[in-house]
Amino acid sequence: MKHVSFNRPKFGHLTKMAVAASALMLQSSLAIAQEAQFAPLAEQFGPLNAQTGDRHTPQRVLPIPQTASEAAQALIAAPYSPYWNLAPTSDEEWIATVAASSEYGVQEATALREAHGITIEDATLGGVPVFILRPETVPEAHQNQVLINLHGGGYVFGPGRSGTSEATVMADIGGYEVIAVDYRMPPEAPFPAAVEDALAVYRDVLETHDPANVGIFGTSAGGGLTLSLVHKIKSEGLPVPGAIAPISPWSDLTETGDSYRTNEWIDNVLVSYDGYLGRAAALYADGHDLSDPLLSPINGDFDGFPPTTLTAGTRDLFLSNTARVHRGLRQEGIAAELHIFEGLSHAQHIFDWSMPETRELYREITAFFDVHLSD
User: Fold this and answer.
1) Would you give the end-to-end CA distance of the chain in angstroms?
2) Which domain CATH number covers 261?
3) How many CA atoms lie within 13 Å of 257's alpha carbon, on the beta-carbon side?
4) What is the pLDDT of residue 31?
5) Closest listed residue to residue 228, CA positions, set 297, 324, 155
6) How far is 172 from 164, CA to CA, in rounded Å?
7) Where on the phi/psi map is residue 48: left (φ > 0), alpha (ψ -120 to 50), or beta?
8) How far apart are the C-alpha atoms of 132 and 54, rounded to whole Å?
9) pLDDT tens string 131-183
10) Domain assignment present for 279
11) 3-state helix, strand, coil in the chain (%, to 5)
């Protein structure tokens, strides 16, 4: 039998042509389908938006952005957080809910420390319990620097060691000594307890550190508390820290800002202010005016603030909270950066500490602190 050989280059060329043709046909089909959907929508919503006023939009299904990492896509595709519509009806129910959540938080923080060789020390600064986290090696440039971390959790969650995961990650990625503040929270200790505790710790740190060597950071409520703390530091006549890094800060508790509407029901972590978030705001404020700059720091004076790096996600309910702070800082001439991550909902980086976006976020903060903190 005569051996017949195939011309592989030609075969490969034909295969590529077939794949390309199929792709073109698919794109054409999608384009036709999109055009079929677009035409009636344009006919309906064009006239509705032809006048000055509120913006009318069609109901829509948002696809998972392929431009985010695979790990981020998994979080973006996840169902709503089980806590988004949490509605405890008594102080006892709030306490029990927080206690149950804290069990997982302690396990996570412990696993992170063990995986990255981070030590933890219980201490007290300014009469406030804190945890001091240290990496195995602190770079020479960071030897005289210290970071203060104010944990997130809606001013309700994250007591004790359950609130130390972010401090652990920053100690690991940045190579810093990090002080995690176990500030008081409601229902036992509502506003202004958290601000008072953060200030007491900062005062104590100034006894041993030049303020130019101190950085403060936190996510969500921790980001809002970071901003409120700087307002309080200024009002007390104390020197401000060298730099701060509020991440998706809860800078406005009054539900003011565009993304409270544009990202409502899209953010799969917070979902809506009318769920757990608004209830946590009321619990924390304890009858105080929500527009108070120490509750909603967006309403404070940003003149004299330290250099600030801010972070949020495109689906974040707090995207406007973050953008508005950035503009407020820049209007006062403050050095400020704004980093927006593709597809992420509120504080979604804390749901996967190994996610590329998470690692990149804390590397960005480290780079910012390297520029603005004294060594």
Assistant:
1) 81
2) 3.40.50.1820
3) 27
4) 58
5) 297
6) 12
7) alpha
8) 50
9) 999 999 999 999 999 999 999 999 999 999 999 999 999 999 999 999 999 99
10) yes
11) 45, 10, 40
